[in-house]
Amino acid sequence: MISDEQVIWIEQANYLGDYRLELFFNDNTSQQIDFFPFLSSSRNPLIRKYLDIEEFRNYSLDEGDLQWNDYDLCFPIADLYENSIIR
């Protein structure tokens, strides 16, 4: 859990295959996150488009945030840090 005085950001993201990324945070922790459950359970076509693996793999880091297509899809840092993406 992130404490109130911590400022956390993502320093690096590595593609692991399928819909999984490994995220490395500035406090020397990391998380392996499977985005498939979130993407596949969404009914929103703007989110489901990232089930196209080429779209999913087109992620980037912007000032410590993980995002896709100029923030078309992004997640709160705390959720990524705790590996608790809400479905």
General description of the model:
The mean pLDDT is about 95. This protein has about 90 residues and is α+β, with helices and mostly antiparallel strands. It has a three-stranded antiparallel β-sheet with strand order 1-2-3. Strands 4-5-6 form a three-stranded antiparallel β-sheet, with no helix packed on it. It contains four helices and six strands; from the N terminus they run E-E-E-H-H-H-E-E-E-H. The two termini are about 20 Å apart.
Q: What's a concise summary of this model?
A:
With 87 residues, the chain is of the alpha+beta class. It is built from 4 helices and 6 strands.
What are the key terms here?
87 residues, alpha+beta, 4 helices, 33% strand, globular
Helix content: 10-25%
The Rg value, from CA coordinates, equals: 13 Å
Strand order of the largest sheet: 1-2-3
- By DSSP (H or I, 4+ residues per run), the number of helices equals 4
Low-confidence stretches: none
Distance between the termini: 19 Å
Order of helices and strands: EEEHHHEEEH
| Fraction of residues in β-strands | 25-35%
Question: Helix/strand-derived class?
Answer: alpha+beta
Task: Kindly report the average pLDDT value.
Answer: 94
Described by strand count, sense and barrel closure, the largest sheet is: 3 strands, antiparallel
Number of strands: 6
Bulk shape: globular
